[in-house]
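Narrative of accomplishments. A recurring question from our advisory board has been how the design workflow behaves on a single, concrete structure rather than in aggregate. To address it, we present the structure tokens for one chain from the evaluation set, followed by the sequence designed for it. No filtering or post-editing was applied between the two.
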């Protein structure tokens, strides 16, 4: 039997027949369609990579089959640049205070150096070394308060010589914390203090009654508190001062003089009518230096009929 000839059917014809059988358009040819893929780069910027895929577009979509897919590049936000705040300036010394028209007995006393940073105030019981120098001088038998009712306050201050120094004073326990806070505030204000030493045998005995010699301490512009004595300038009355209870503090006696009932000015009248702002001066009840004490519940003697500008008490 003679074999029937085999006819080769073109591949394209087969594709067209298949499409016709499935409802396709044999006249539509395969066209490449672009597909965009978002690929992140190492630098953090998104780039688009385009690849090609061969698909057969249906008749209904002929007009758009060649349109490439659109992509939007996303940019990663950059990290904010950190800025370090400037370091605060640490003041270790001030300029010495210039000479005034009147000066205390010692212009720049030898003070202890400051300890620690800032005011570094502390309140403790009166140490033996301090109490032993007080007994028989600033404290004697018959005083209205004893050792157990007193406290020892230590604090840094700014001296008239411009140096950071450390001072101490003895006060009643009832105002110890307030006194420490007030002097810490004076430190932050850079308020000048000439010296701050307890009333004891260093000053000698008061020539006008009990207690340490307050007149010598005033002439030296010493800041102090407890001293079992009578009211200054009125010793004949034998009335104990609030200093005898430890509830009064005198600051910078020379710059802040005291006017006794008889009109006598202690220790010097040079600053009596020079109450404007000046180093170590309590200029007014509204000044920050005065408020350092009055905000702690202490009253200022500068408002009295016979002003006592150096004096704060409760």
């Amino acid at each position: 039997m003679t074999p029937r000839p085999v006819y080769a059917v073109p591949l394209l014809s087969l594709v067209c027949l298949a499409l016709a059988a499935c409802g396709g358009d044999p006249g539509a040819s395969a066209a490449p369609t672009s597909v965009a893929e978002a690929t992140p780069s190492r630098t953090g910027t998104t780039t688009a990579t385009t690849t090609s895929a061969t698909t057969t577009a249906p008749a209904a979509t002929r007009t758009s089959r060649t349109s490439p897919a659109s992509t939007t590049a996303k940019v990663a936000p950059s990290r904010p640049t950190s800025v370090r705040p400037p370091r605060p300036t640490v003041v270790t010394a001030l300029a010495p205070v210039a000479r005034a028209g009147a000066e205390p007995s010692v212009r720049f006393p030898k003070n202890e150096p400051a300890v620690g940073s800032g005011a570094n105030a502390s309140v403790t019981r009166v140490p033996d070394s301090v109490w032993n120098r007080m007994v028989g001088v600033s404290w004697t038998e018959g005083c209205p308060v004893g050792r157990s009712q007193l406290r020892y306050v230590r604090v840094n201050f700014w001296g008239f010589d411009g140096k950071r120094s450390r001072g101490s004073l003895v006060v009643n326990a009832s105002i110890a914390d307030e006194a420490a806070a007030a002097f810490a505030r004076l430190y932050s204000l850079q308020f000048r203090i000439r010296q701050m030493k307890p009333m004891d045998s260093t000053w000698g005995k008061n020539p006008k009654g009990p207690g340490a010699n307050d007149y010598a301490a005033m002439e030296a512009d010493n800041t102090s508190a407890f001293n079992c004595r009578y009211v200054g300038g009125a010793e004949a009355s034998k009335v104990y001062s609030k200093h005898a209870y430890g509830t009064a503090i005198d600051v910078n006696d020379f710059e802040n003089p005291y006017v006794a009932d008889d009109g006598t000015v202690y220790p010097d009248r040079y600053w009596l009518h020079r109450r404007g702002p000046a180093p170590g001066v309590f200029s007014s009840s509204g000044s920050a230096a005065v408020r350092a004490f009055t905000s702690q519940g202490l009253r200022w003697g500068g408002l009295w009929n016979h002003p006592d500008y150096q004096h704060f008490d409760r």
